[in-house]
Amino acid sequence: MKRLLTWLGLALGLVVVVLLGFVAFLWFAPYPSYEPVVPAVTVASTPERVAHGRRLALSLCVACHENPETKTVSGKLMADMPPEFGTVYSKNITQHETQGIGGWTDGELLGLLRTGIHPRTGQFVPPWMPRFNRMADEDLESIIAWLRSDDPIVAATNQTNTAGSPTLLTKFLMRVVMSPTEMPSQRIDVPSTANMQEFGRYVANDRYSCFGCHSADFADQDEVRPENSAGFYGGGMTMPDLVGRAVYVPNLTAHATNGLGKWTEAEFVQAMSTGINRNGKPFRYPMARHNMLTPEEHAAIYAYLRSVPVLEGTPSSTPEYAESAEKGPKGLYFKHGCAGCHGATGMGAASLLKAHGKYPDDSVLADVIRNITRYNPEAWMPEYASVMSESDATQLALHVRTLCSKR
Ligand code: HEC
Ligand code: HEC
Ligand code: HEC
After folding, report:
1. pLDDT above 70 covers what percent of the chain?
2. Please, are residues 249 and 255 in contact by the beta-carbon 8 Å criterion?
3. Which end of the chain is more exposed for a tag (fewer CB within 10 A), N or C?
4. Minimum CA distance residue for ligand 2 atom 41
């Protein structure tokens, strides 16, 4: 008996040592490496490609890579990253020869975007940098053509990349749970718009990955065949906004009460392009307004969503923001959902800290808040005019100035 206990003790000790060794390994080892994939492509630039690539990149790349100081895609701290994953910086993807991607070949860019393997180091790039493994070659080549274009936002910027500090959880996920995606075996084409439902399937799933947030669980998604993801388009996850309030992700299937069953196409397009929901509430973070989508893309997504198998999901939706404990302008800033995107300090997913200098006139700043599209036609901030009084906007402008002065 005594001997058995000794053996058990030793065995347990061994398990602990192995576990500790694994933890130490995770902590000290670099991200796992793979053989880089560098397809032989050279992207010919045409004005159409650049324009198409720019439109896609504004929805798919710029929010993460644009630095508000340089106004180029020179990389920044990802202020909206959940702390469980550590501190994360996006990278300089301007045309700078050494700091940016100016020295990369088209094949290196395509390989990274498809697989997630860094073409220079072979390291697996953390999943904060999305992979575009189902996107059509024409779309990705257009994005590459745009990265090479004379658009001021990609102009060479001499900004050094900052290394982040990933947590043990991140390192564990990168080594044990996640792996690079495979290069598609043949060219992928954009489906014809002759069949709106087919085109919509491509746009919603493969171009903008709407299912990624609107399905049951991030951990149970099929990157190759999105339709096999758990609770496909049935919603149900909750996501924290930038001040930690839980936002519920709704069901987008055609369920009559819990989904989009009663939405008309016009209501859908209106909500997507203004960021004001059918119920008159502005979209909450992280749901962006999608006014950079073409009318055709909007119509196609709507047609496709109506064809997705209906799921009941749960009827819950995020309760209205409670009247904040804060009164006055700061209270309004929380109540209208500004804090959800801009954070309590105004830094968040888009920075407010330049607004004071940019819009010295109070009535102009209030107008920016109600009619952002006038000042930035490509904005993904909701167009508040129809749901916010001018006097609230005036008070909010005051609060924005307070945030700027606290810096
Ligand atoms: C959700 C945020 C996010 C989006 C969206 C995003 N990126 Fe990134 N990207 C990152 C982060 C974070 C990194 C750095 C990852 C790391 O730590 O290595 C990165 C890295 C990169 C790199 C590697 C640069 C280098 O020097 O290692 C390239 C190239 C790149 N992104 C291009 C793009 C393009 C093109 C798009 C749009 C098609 C895009 N990214 C969309 C967050 C994002
Ligand atoms: C980053 C995660 C995320 C992505 C990506 C995303 N959504 Fe959403 N979506 C949300 C959240 C969260 C809400 C709830 C917002 C709220 O409560 O105001 C939402 C709300 C909506 C609504 C309102 C539905 C209702 O019943 O209130 C529609 C419509 C919608 N999304 C469509 C889309 C489409 C189409 C796409 C792809 C182009 C998309 N979403 C991509 C997170 C996301
Ligand atoms: C869904 C996210 C979101 C919400 C909610 C939101 N904003 Fe914004 N806001 C942005 C983004 C992103 C920008 C940068 C322009 C763009 O791309 O839309 C911006 C830009 C601005 C600007 C201009 C900054 C500049 O330097 O030009 C002001 C001012 C502003 N927001 C104030 C507000 C106020 C006040 C509220 C609440 C009523 C609010 N925002 C709600 C995302 C949001």
Report:
1. 90
2. no
3. N
4. 210
